[in-house]
Fold:
Amino acid sequence: MKIHAFQCVACQQQHPTQLHQCTCGAPLRVLYTSKPRATWQQIRKHQAGHWRYAPFLPDVARRISLDEGHTPLVTDGRLHFKLEGCNPTGSFKDRGTTVEISLANRPVVCATTGNMGASVAAYCAQAKLPCTIVLPRNTPLQKKKQISIYGARVHTVPGHYTHAVEQARHIAERTQAYLAGDYALRREGEKTVAYEILDQLDYTPDRIICPMGNGTLVSAVWQGLLDFKRAGLIRQLSQLIGVQASGCAPIATAYRTGKGLRAVHPHTIASAVACGDPLDGLLALRAIKESCGAIFTISDADIIRARHAMAREYGIDAEPAGVLPYAALQRLKGNKQTVLVITGNGMKDLKHV
Ligand SMILES: [Zn+2]
Structure:
């Protein structure tokens, strides 16, 4: 689809290009010139994978792709594990990155807790675009090494992810680089997790459980469900369950208290969701509320226990953040059709194994 503008999700102001946020501080979303339209038959004419859903994504002149998507959906009764760690760089981030880097056309800078950095570095290598990745000093070693192997320039900052985000914005402003990150275009790409779950199951699951850091994934999944409902491809919507680490739970706190989002200093082994000032917190809250969902928080000790349990019970390993949906399962009642979005591969972080 052709992009018309980038609209603020709070004050509705429209911007001609993607900014990291509106002048009012809220996130932006992509507005298109037309409504997405496709039948299941038209979609399934194309080979399985992220770009099968191109009618629901921004138009790109040059597609930068590592054949992301078509990740396994492993089913055990009414439980379904969506293995996003099987993407080319080991996390769901590749779905957003293929869209962003296909549209970047200039040097790229990106702040990361690790996974997005590896993904952006890999796609920039294919696009032959110079790439600078900014990450917190305490990023897991495997992730730091994974980023450097693709040839990205790496800046390490003291402090947390929020500091890396500020640093990346400064570099982008100074050098006119494309600022990659959890912004409007990436959210569009991440919608394909939802499209693919619906495509693979052939029905709408009762609930979808996602880890929450910046809140971009859960809001993208909600948008994906809405897109397919509006296009007449599904009738029902799923309930969305968001899961945060107890040591970094600003979205959960805002949901519980109703007092709005307040930044926190993260303290958790789930580094991939250690986003103290969540960029898409507002949209994540909306997605959870509109879907009549819920938010849970999980302690580091329970994450470690759940990681071992999931690996031994199902043969599925994930990095600590990717275990959050499984860890949240025991808090949910009823034997419903449930999809767990397992966001990152276990081999990305072996420290607590
Ligand atoms: Zn605004």
In short: Residues 161-175 form the longest helix (15 residues). Residues 73-91+187-348 form a domain with the Rossmann fold fold (CATH 3.40.50.1100). The first strand starts at residue 3 and ends at 8. The two ends are 44 Å apart (CA to CA).
